[in-house]
Amino acid sequence: MVSIIVEETAELKGSIAAPPSKSYSHRCIIAASLSKGKSLIASPLFCDDTYATIKACTALGVSIKQADNSLEVVGPSQLKAPRAAIDCGESGSTIRFLAAVAALAKGKTVLTGSPGLLGRPIGPIVEALQQLGVDCTSNDGFPPVTVFGGGIRGGSASLVGDVSSQFVTGLLLACPMAERDTEIKLTTPLESKPYVELTIDVIRRHGVKMQASKGLRRFTIPGGQQYSPGNHSVPGDYSSASFLLVAAAITGSRIRVENLQPDQPDIAIIDILERMGADINVSDGVVEVSGGSLRGVDIDARDIPDLVPPCTVLACFSSGTTRILHAGRLRIKESDRLATLPSELRKMGAKIIEGEEGLTIRGPCELKGGRVSSSNDHRIAMACAVAALKARDKTEILGVECVDKSYPSFFEDLKKLGGDVHS
């Protein structure tokens, strides 16, 4: 287990490029893998999760070559099931997306992962695939998943929309290649809508057609389609950049984060920072933060679950009460974030009340250093590091290697901006 020390930092300054979007990278790699021919992906994110997707697609017969800061992906005429099980590591996106894609591969595919991943639900997409004629099983609703491929019949499938949008994305990726038309109906409102919109945008760039209802509760996908090769340039990730933006706001610093294009998931962090009093300027893919007088607000996390950790830290240094609402899905992430966030930040002196579906934070809090744990959760590690920048004395964070899951250069970037970070 690797630990790192973060000490109180008076000021951050400078510019940094946001890391490429993990969500976009996953989807581009898979859409390119389903295309017969060569696709180029410029500036993808290289991290543990995207490497899991690259390895999984390669195991299904896709040729993927890394050159400098790009990927060349050549999809085969027919996906083929591998002899060995596909290890998806800690990546929920990989196993949920590939569970559907594996139905298109000839033969038996087994998808498994780390102990943490084996505790994350997969039942809804397995049940939906069964409704569409796929022979597949799970371990009582959890991985490993066994898929007996050869094609997807199509037809009608229903599933919940408020457990994980990744189930919907998996079906949207695979079902255009079903034998006949597919209709997907959600029995509960879809949460994390921007991520499904991102999926639709990516696959349409590969020539795939589908229709979605206004509220994204119903999807109609013509069957028998083929993906066409397509090229992508992956934009910066607002989810990861949010930690840097919050770090600037709570330390009263002025920084610039570049490579942040509009219309990306989690751009909502800009509105949240503005509502809480931070001075924000956005232009030409650059977001500039200049501190501000921070105040508590209500935050609806229904579509932005990944922003809850940085927003919780932001709330700790804001006057008044912040309520984070509709965040129940955080209990089935890499850790139970609704429990882990309060537990670790309270060790530093934060005033946080855990609810069944959210958090209540009373600020401003006077945080002090100490020893905290990432709980092997990348967003917990980054949240604790940002909080430590404004805490008295030094803070030791245990298990920081987990940031390799989504933002391998996080601590380097924090240091480049002037953060007091050392081993």
What is the CATH homology-level superfamily of the largest domain?
Enolpyruvate transferase domain
Q: Tell me the strand percentage band.
A: 25-35%
- Could you describe the largest sheet, including whether it forms a barrel? 4 strands, mixed
Give the strand line-up of the largest sheet.
22-23-1-24
Structural class of the secondary elements?
alpha/beta
Q: Report how far the terminal alpha carbons are from each other.
A: 13 Å
**Which fold name corresponds to the CATH topology of the largest domain?**
UDP-n-acetylglucosamine1-carboxyvinyl-transferase, Chain
Q: Rough shape?
A: globular
Summed up, the helix count is: 12
Helix content: 25-40%
The strand count comes to 24
User: Averaging pLDDT over every residue, what do you get?
Assistant: 97
CATH class of the largest domain: Alpha Beta
User: Which parts are unreliable, with pLDDT below 50 for 5 consecutive residues or more?
Assistant: none
Count of separate structural domains: 2
Name of the CATH architecture of the largest domain: Alpha-beta prism
Rounded to the nearest angstrom, the radius of gyration is 21 Å
Characterize the structure shown:
- The chain is an alpha/beta fold and 423 residues long.
- It has two domains: 3-19 and 236-422, UDP-n-acetylglucosamine1-carboxyvinyl-transferase, Chain, CATH 3.65.10.10; 22-233, Enolpyruvate transferase domain (UDP-n-acetylglucosamine1-carboxyvinyl-transferase, Chain, Alpha-beta prism), CATH 3.65.10.
- Helices cover 29% and strands 26% of the residues.
- It has helices at 22-33, 48-59, 92-101, 123-131, 165-174, 193-204, 238-250, 268-275, 308-316, 337-346, 378-388, 410-416; strands spanning 3-7, 13-17, 37-42, 63-67, 70-75, 86-87, 108-112, 135-139, 142-148, 155-159, 182-186, 211-212, 218-221, 232-233, 254-258, 278-283, 286-292, 298-300, 320-325, 352-354, 359-363, 371-373, 395-398, 420-422.
- Strands 22-23-1-24 form a four-stranded mixed β-sheet, with helices on one face. A four-stranded mixed β-sheet has the order 2-15-17-16.
- Helix 1 (22-33) runs parallel beside helix 2 (48-59), helix 4 (123-131) packs parallel to helix 5 and helix 7 (238-250) runs parallel beside helix 11 (378-388).
- The two termini are 13 Å apart.
- The relative contact order is 0.15.
- The mean pLDDT is 97.
